[in-house]
């Protein structure tokens, strides 16, 4: 192993805490939609979503996650396009939508630093912080990595990541267009404004569907929103169970297959109950659910990705150094979150990564270097884990050009 057992336990624990909290936010978001749709108290729908997800994830496992994600994605895309179409029809035209929308809301980003609280969307914070956020999310987060590991070959995994890199931006644009279109309806609709107070913007899309769309379409669109949330929730729950089993339960003890399967389902149930319980506290966290779930990830992603990058790049950093680096990186990010709210949260990804790396190298200088015979196979220069069956350089260049054009 590149690091010793203590680092493995720590980094796995950091992931479990971050992903467990994020899963609780997803339950809360999904419950909002269901509460509006059924017109029942939020606490009932939180329990309902938690139980339903727990049942089908426990019974179906990873196969259920993959197949349900495909179906849910189709429903989600249909729902987004339907909301955009009906919002444009209600307002009158695309030009009127942009005319109604306040000018200050159309300024998506600013060139502010993002360290003084003067901007909610600083360009450099989004670019640099977001870069490290997505590297960690798609490269080290078990909820995403497990999808790649379910592929038949390494090449198939790389193709899926390449395809994701291409379609991610158009999908994000669709989200934004839907938000602008529905927002324009909101600014000219008294009933929608009455149903969605300024501090409860998470309710806007569900209330728009309930109040402004044809009754026959409502069920499909509510299903689309639920699909988006459930797609993230089932994979998160599965990843929590897998990481717990692999790193804490079966690491030093071998179980028969039936016994291990039973234990994994027990762990899934425990995590399902835990994240459902956390969902009841999400409403007290400031920000929309999209912002909250990304804040949680940003507090932990930087140190996690630093651990993996240093592991494959450096032969000097030892386990004691990276252990101290993780503690320092996570600790500083939590300090920024709780006591320095003026620092834009996407910066936490870069800050956490940098602090982890600096502390790791500093502490490693006071100890012996790792045994090269042990770690060489895991490094990018001498290891065999980075070999490829085909030349992927044209794909990397294509992604680079695509990024610059965006």
- What is the CATH architecture assignment? Up-down Bundle
Q: What proportion strand?
A: under 5%
Count of separate DSSP helical elements:
16
Query: Structurally, how many domains make up the residues?
Result: 1
| Strand-pairing-aware structural class | mainly alpha
Order of helices and strands: HHHHHHHHHHHHHHHH
Description:
It is built from 16 helices and no strands. The chain has one domain: Sodium/glucose cotransporter (Up-down Bundle). The model has no long low-confidence stretch (mean pLDDT 86). It is mainly alpha-helical.
Concise account of the structure shown:
The protein is mostly helical. The protein is built from 16 helices and no strands.
Features:
about 400 residues, Sodium/glucose cotransporter, single chain, about 75% helix, mainly alpha
Describe the secondary structure blueprint for this structure.
Blueprint: H1 5-38, H2 42-91, H3 94-100, H4 103-106, H5 123-140, H6 142-149, H7 154-187, H8 190-195, H9 204-212, H10 215-249, H11 257-279, H12 289-313, H13 319-339, H14 347-364, H15 372-375, H16 393-405
Helix pairs in contact: 1-2, 1-10, 1-11, 1-12, 1-13, 2-7, 2-10, 2-11, 3-7, 5-12, 5-14, 6-10, 10-11, 12-13, 12-14, 13-14
């Amino acid at each position: 192993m590149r690091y010793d057992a203590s680092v493995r336990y720590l980094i796995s624990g950091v992931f479990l805490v971050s992903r467990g909290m994020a899963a609780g936010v997803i339950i809360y978001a999904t419950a909002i939609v269901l509460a509006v749709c059924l017109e029942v108290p939020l606490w009932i729908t939180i329990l309902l979503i938690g139980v339903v997800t727990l049942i089908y994830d426990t019974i179906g496992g990873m196969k259920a996650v993959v197949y349900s994600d495909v179906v849910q994605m189709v429903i989600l895309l249909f729902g987004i396009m339907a909301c955009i179409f009906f919002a444009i029809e209600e307002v009158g035209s695309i030009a009127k939508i942009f005319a109604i929308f306040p000018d200050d809301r159309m300024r998506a980003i600013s060139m502010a630093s993002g360290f003084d609280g003067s901007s909610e969307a600083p360009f450099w914070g989004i670019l640099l912080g977001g870069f490290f956020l997505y590297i960690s999310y798609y490269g080290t987060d078990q909820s995403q990595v497990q999808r790649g590991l379910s592929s038949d070959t390494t090449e198939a995994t790389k193709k899926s990541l390449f395809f994701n890199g291409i379609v991610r931006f158009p999908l994000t644009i669709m989200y934004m267009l839907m938000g602008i279109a529905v927002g324009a309806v909101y600014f000219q609709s008294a009933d929608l404004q009455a149903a969605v107070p300024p501090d409860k913007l998470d309710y806007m899309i569900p209330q728009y569907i309930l109040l402004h769309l044809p009754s026959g379409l409502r069920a499909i669109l509510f299903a689309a929103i639920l699909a988006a949330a459930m797609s993230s929730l089932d994979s998160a729950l599965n990843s929590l169970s897998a990481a717990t089993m692999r790193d804490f339960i079966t690491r030093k003890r071998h179980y028969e297959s039936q016994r291990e399967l039973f234990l994994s389902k027990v762990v899934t149930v425990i995590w399902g109950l835990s994240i459902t319980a956390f969902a009841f506290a999400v409403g007290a966290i400031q920000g929309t659910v999209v912002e909250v779930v990304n804040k949680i990830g940003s507090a932990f992603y930087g140190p996690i990705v630093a651990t993996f990058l240093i592991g494959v790049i450096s032969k000097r950093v030892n386990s004691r150094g990276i252990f101290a680096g993780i503690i320092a990186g996570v600790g500083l990010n939590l300090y920024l979150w709780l006591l320095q709210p003026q620092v834009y949260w996407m910066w936490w990804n870069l800050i956490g990564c940098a602090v982890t790396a600096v502390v790791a190298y500093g502490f490693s200088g006071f100890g012996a270097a790792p045994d090269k015979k042990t770690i060489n196979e895991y490094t990018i220069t001498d290891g065999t884990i980075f070999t490829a069956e085909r030349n992927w350089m044209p794909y990397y260049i294509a992604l680079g050009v695509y990024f610059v054009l965006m």
